[in-house]
């Protein structure tokens, strides 16, 4: 075919190019979003996953398992570094728009062989999840709220035109991988097997458009606790010279695209002695999230004197953290009866600075899969250090310590709870 | 090592995790950018390319060439589809932070073999360029302003902590690839060899940080003209429900991260009969750029009656197009003497709508490497179609037609010019 057919060209056109033109006069349409972010603008993306013409759903019954002939030696627990060593096997499932999902495979952990024109290398067709498998006291394997990860991966994939899958089927497949590699799950408290479901676009043409093929794969890495000797408080640099996410963008999805652009600011912050960026947004200097965590602050309300646990709302610029959601649920369950208010609203660095100056800043912590909660000592902002309420000898506030315990009790199955999924 | 050493953890920490904390109290610093975007905010990223401890620069003298034993048959010119078929060979150079750039290799075009944990798959460590090689009437190979592509690739790489390279050395290496595969450069006017320099992060660990290793590679695809039978005007959907780029973001860099998030809106626009999105920004509905092109409009000034060629300024949200720059330079050279004003400033959809209503909208076109210029017939905005000035039987305005001719004369060497680089 000499030229792409009309309509197809725009979906496959070169970056910085012009697609083949249509001469037909398009019908006019009103283009208004439905969700609100701020009063004056409306943003709304109808993310739509790629569709197969003959959709073959993800089918766990077609799973094939090829076991490794060279099992890796287990590392000592104290040698584990996050995401550096992987288990013996991986799960992978190919997809293409004609056939849908092909038969899932568990194979020895191995390199991917991809055409250099594959869309994942050029246009960041990639999304992922982070989740963990734990061993409880009885040796039983448990996942923590894995349904949330499956749901979020589908949302991330749909936002970049990658295919969706049946969540419970992928969860079944992941459980098979985890059971096969269960010897890699450390038994000690605080240790776990980090799981990394990943989906990439594999179409091997340079046209900019929805990939016609994709690969979903899951790799696993045994990891230790972030704090083997207890919490270590971190300090943050409030960052306004660069912006992580924006309304109408993709900051709420777990896309590769959200990460690479944050590394130079992260290095900048580290060069000044801060462990992470605290991303601000807008002229108001709204606090959004930490480099790789959601952000929580505990303040005493200026007017009522009541304790408040505060975090930014899910307005499309904040990653929908599973740990964030867990912290909120546990806070509502356990702190509200003690008189706390749990508040999801926009808040500013000025508010935090005022609270610190007035002795109302109780504590702050980040939340994420790897560290659960990470206490924050101070935030650098406008040339001063905002003190987040820890005493000099403390590495964690009371709330962060309690929250970590509550979550771990459900992760390790000490407390039977619907959040804990038994493999 | 049990835990990452202090300071290293933050650069290698898990997404949604907490890094190991520092207990030292960091020094406070004032954090103000130096460039201005709008009056009330300042954004400035000091992009810094990755540095080797023993930096070994890119060295063309170390090039090795392994020729294919299975040369591909040439496709007929009329069968060429953008970015679908590639030449016999590819150029690749590995980098790591200990050794710097390794010896460049030209090899048969082949798959990349990468660990599934490679950072390119998870965190979008990837940037690229688009450029073309042409054959002139004497059969000589020419590149068009390739120094601009080399410079931009270095800027893109630095923004995501990938390594930089000596621009003229990479250009020499690309010239070697092009000469080796010169039989793939079509001889016909309007045809060329599209070149895709690409850099990806290859560190095979899941920590979020600057990749310690990378791969630079170049592949090449013979392509035809976008308009073998003359221009075809396209129609655009002005898009405000999603936002391509933001001040303080990375919209001015050629990163993979800027592409995948735009595909669902592109599909939406196509479903309504428009070939591309015209990305708007802010409450003012500023016109920024087309899906894969920079945007130019020609208007008659309301007050002075003078003709103006208008495009958005390089404010950090606009891709710094080589064709955009060429259009501006040629317009200043050839249109200003005819009384045109060439203006880089922010402009709004309302301005365009008013100009259309008042008969002052002369024409509009996108600019990009693949199509050079792409005439625009109409823009859908707020439920109406803004007419861009073409007569019903016209597929291109006078200015777009002239501009295409001026640029092609320098691309194909009809006019000897410093923009044309002879291999």
Q: Percent of residues of chain A in helical segments?
A: 10-25%
On the 0 to 100 scale, the average pLDDT of chain A is 89
N-C termini distance of chain A: 51 Å
The helix count of chain A comes to: 8
EC number (chains A, B): 2.6.1.42
Cofactor (chains A, B): pyridoxal 5'-phosphate
Family (chains A, B): Belongs to the class-IV pyridoxal-phosphate-dependent aminotransferase family.
GO molecular function (chains A, B): branched-chain-amino-acid transaminase activity
Question: How would you portray this structure in words?
Answer:
Two copies of one chain form a homodimer. With 423 residues, chain A is α+β, with helices and mostly antiparallel strands. Helix content of chain A is 19%, strand content 27%. The first copy, chain A, has eight helices and 22 strands. In chain A, the strands form three sheets. In chain A, strands 3, 4, 5, 6, 8, 9, 10, 11, 12 and 22 form a ten-stranded mixed β-sheet that branches. The first copy, chain A, has a six-stranded mixed beta barrel with strand order 13-14-15-16-19-20, surrounded by four helices. In chain A, strands 1-2 form a two-stranded antiparallel ribbon. In chain A, helix 6 links the parallel strand 17 and strand 18. In chain A, helix 3 crosses helix 4. The longest helix of chain A is centred in the middle third of the chain and has 14 residues. The radius of gyration of chain A is 23 Å and the shape is globular. The N terminus of chain A is likely disordered. At the A-B interface, helix 1, strand 2, strand 7, helix 2 and strand 11 of A face helix 1, strand 2, strand 7, helix 2 and strand 11 of B. Chains A, B: Its cofactor is pyridoxal 5'-phosphate. Chains A, B: It catalyses: L-valine + 2-oxoglutarate = 3-methyl-2-oxobutanoate + L-glutamate; L-isoleucine + 2-oxoglutarate = (S)-3-methyl-2-oxopentanoate + L-glutamate; L-leucine + 2-oxoglutarate = 4-methyl-2-oxopentanoate + L-glutamate. Chains A, B: Belongs to the class-IV pyridoxal-phosphate-dependent aminotransferase family. Chains A, B: InterPro entries: Aminotrans_IV, Aminotrans_IV_CS, Aminotransferase-like, B_amino_transII, BCAT-like_C, BCAT-like_N, BCAT_family. Chains A, B: One of its GO terms (biological process) is L-valine biosynthetic process.
């Amino acid at each position: 075919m000499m030229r792409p057919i009309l309509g197809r060209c725009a979906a496959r056109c070169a970056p910085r190019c012009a697609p083949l033109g249509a001469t037909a006069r398009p019908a006019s349409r009103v283009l208004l979003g439905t969700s609100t972010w701020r009063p004056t603008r409306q943003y709304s993306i109808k993310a739509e996953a790629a569709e197969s013409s003959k959709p073959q759903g993800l089918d766990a019954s077609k799973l094939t398992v090829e076991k490794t002939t060279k099992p890796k030696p287990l590392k000592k627990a104290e040698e584990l570094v996050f995401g550096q060593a992987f288990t013996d096997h991986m799960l992978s499932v190919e997809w293409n728009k004609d056939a849908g999902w092909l038969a899932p495979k568990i194979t020895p952990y191995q390199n991917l062989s991809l055409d250099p024109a594959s869309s994942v290398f050029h246009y960041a067709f990639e999304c992922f999840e982070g989740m963990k498998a734990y061993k409880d006291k009885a040796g039983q394997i448990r996942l923590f709220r894995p349904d949330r990860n499956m749901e979020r991966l589908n949302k991330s994939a749909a936002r970049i035109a990658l295919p969706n899958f049946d969540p419970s089927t992928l969860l079944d497949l992941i459980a098979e991988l985890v059971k096969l590699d269960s010897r890699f799950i450390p038994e000690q408290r605080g240790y776990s097997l980090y799981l990394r479901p990943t989906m990439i676009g594999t179409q091997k043409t340079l046209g900019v458009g929805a990939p016609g093929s994709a690969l979903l794969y899951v790799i696993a890495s045994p990891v230790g606790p972030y704090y083997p000797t207890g919490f270590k408080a971190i300090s943050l640099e409030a960052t306004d010279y660069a912006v992580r996410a924006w309304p109408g963008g993709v900051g709420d999805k777990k896309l590769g695209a959200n990460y690479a652009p944050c590394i130079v600011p992260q290095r900048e912050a580290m060069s000044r002695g801060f462990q992470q960026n605290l991303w601000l947004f807008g002229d108001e200097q709204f606090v959004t999230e930490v480099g790789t965590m959601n952000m929580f602050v505990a303040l005493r309300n200026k007017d009522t004197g009541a304790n408040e646990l505060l975090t930014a709302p899910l307005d499309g610029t904040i990653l929908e953290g599973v740990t964030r959601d867990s912290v909120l649920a546990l806070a509502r369950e356990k702190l509200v009866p003690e008189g706390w208010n749990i508040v999801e609203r926009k808040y500013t660095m000025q508010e935090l600075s005022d609270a610190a100056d007035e002795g109302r800043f109780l504590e702050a912590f980040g939340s994420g899969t790897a560290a659960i909660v990470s206490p924050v000592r101070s935030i650098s902002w406008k040339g001063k250090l905002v003190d987040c309420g820890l005493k000099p000898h403390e590495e964690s506030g009371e709330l962060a310590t309690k929250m970590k315990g509550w979550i771990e009790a459900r992760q390790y199955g000490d407390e039977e709870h619907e959040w804990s999924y038994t493999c």
